Amino acid sequence: MWKIVKTTVGEPEARMIEKLLAVYNIPVIVQQTDLFVHPIFGSSAQCEVLVPEDRYEEAYNILQGEGSTVKYTPLYEDHVRLGAKIVEFAGYYMPLQYDGIVAEVERVRKEVGMFDVSHMGEFVCEGPDTVRFANYVVTNDFGSTDFGDIIYTAMCNENGGFVDDLLVYKIAPERIMFVVNASNIDKDFNHILKLSNGFDVRLTNVSDDTGLIAIQGPKTQEMLQPYTDLNLDEIGYYSFKEGSIFDVSGIISRTGYTGEDGFELYIPANQTTVAWRKLLELGIRPAGLGARDVLRLEAGLLLYGNDMDDTVTPLEASIPWAVKFEKGDFYGKEALLKQKEEGLKRRLRGITLETKLVPRHEMEVFKDGQKIGYVTSGTFSPTLGKPIAFVMIDANVKIGDTVQVLIRDKYVDAKVVKTPFYRGSVRSRK
Questions:
Q1: Residue 229: predicted pLDDT
Q2: pLDDT at 428 (0 to 100)
Q3: What is the pLDDT of residue 139?
Q4: Predicted local confidence at residue 32, as pLDDT
Q5: Residues forming a β-bridge with 88
Q6: Which letter does DSSP use for residue 69 in this model?
Q7: In angstroms, rounded to a whole number, what is the distance separating the alpha carbons of residues 328 and 167?
Q8: Residue 298 burial (10 A CB sphere; 0-12, 13-18, 19+)
Q9: Cα–Cα distance between 149 and 159 in angstroms, integer?
């Protein structure tokens, strides 16, 4: 006899559970019951996960306990077959690297590479108040954007600290999509849901039903163009169109996290492997989280949990351009306005070092013998041939100043510089 241990919206989650229980040698049957209508991509299967009745209690406890907290993206098995080194990141099993971080960085900078970013979260918001509501939730001015545009923005708490940094897609007059960091999916959804009181909107978390592949590098467009029904040249930076690639329908956006030109493909989770394998056939090689982190830091892009969190404001994180005080009311505005008027006590800066010693997260930073802050992100940049880092330091420290980072009990000189550290092939905003 078999018993239902879990009902899922979408097959990918059911298959993740199947993989998890297989670790414990628990047999699983996945059977489709109804169709769930995805707000963007259409129908997706609703599934029942069944286990033998005599193993039900064990399976249930596993799914309720620690074992259920780590998820798989739809491409997990492909990563394993390709020989990727797998690590746990943001609640998912993800590829750290395939054939070396430096090699993967170099391919993206000079040619093209691709990333599985299906762990990212997607929320669809629909209803008459959708645009007005989104403009209240985020700090940037979403209300003034056109349909087909995307904004990068912060979402703040009442104290002005980051709940998250995110992208917001304006799809239709009454439909938008929030794209949030994987580690913050549940927190962000609850935050947005709480703020929706009083607005005529409906929120749907479609994260488990949405696959996301990022193809990045200066040769991306020429390689993808023959396989899509869209004219990619018509998609400007931070814009998107709905169309198909390799006969898989979804959203194609000119965005990324590398500083290079490229596109991100939002497609149904159950078709992600189709697109991924077609890209492999074209000769596009995958890259992992390690390369992605190096690329984003070289490009001067922030990482939630390192460079900012709920105690850091967008003003302190040096993205004041993402805060539009003049647009009207938004959540966290009062606290941010107060901070602006009083002046910053600290801010995020970039530093470079002429040494082989690499600054790492939480290392202390000094000037004139006094501690002035700490490293938020640091790495060796293969593109620049030197260590680079973000530091949260006293606001009175200026570009061009010399500071010291305490690395392995040594005070190592570093120069405060403008960011981004490196400008790649990414296009200017249209």
A1: 97
A2: 59
A3: 98
A4: 79
A5: 93
A6: S
A7: 20
A8: buried
A9: 29
Answer for the pair 52, 27: CB distance below 8 angstroms, yes or no. Answer: yes
DSSP state string for 130-154: HHHHHHHHBSS--TTPPTTBEEEEE
DSSP β-ladder status, 92-97 and 71-72: parallel
> Considering the domain 345-417 in this protein, what is its CATH number?
2.40.30.110
Q: Give residue 38's pLDDT.
A: 52
Q: Is 345-417 the same fold as 2-69? A: no
Alpha-carbon gap, residue 357 to 379, rounded angstroms: 10
Homologous superfamily of the 70-344 domain (CATH): Probable tRNA modification gtpase trme; domain 1 (3.30.1360.120)
Class of domain 2-69: alpha beta
Where do the domains of the chain lie? Answer: 2-69, 70-344, 345-417
CA angle 319, 322, 323 (to 5 degrees): 105
Below-50 pLDDT ranges, the chain = 66-67, 430
Predicted pLDDT of residue 63: 77
Map residue 268 onto helix, strand or coil: strand
- Report pLDDT for 17: 83
- Res 227: pLDDT: 98
